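Possible regression after last week's pipeline update?

I re-ran a chain I had predicted before the update to compare outputs. Posting the input and the new output here so someone can diff against the archived version. Not blocking, just want to make sure nothing changed silently.
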Amino acid sequence: MSLIRHCIIDTNTNIVVNIIDYGTEQTGIPPGLEEHLLCVKSDTGEIGGTYEDGVITNPPQPEPILLGAV
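New output (post-update):
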């Protein structure tokens, strides 16, 4: 059985706060979680992303740190 990746969104802030894999596609309030959370299927969403109008926008990637640069 293949798991389906979902983003858990805090509807107070519209921020992705967790990623959970379920055996079936989930929508709405995740089972057993608080009512201000929303479950949205997403293959690419990341924690810290924003959710607006049904679209998850991931946070920018951090700048790479160059070690030993002079």
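Follow-up from reviewer: compared with the archived run. The chain has a mean pLDDT of 92. Marking as no regression found.
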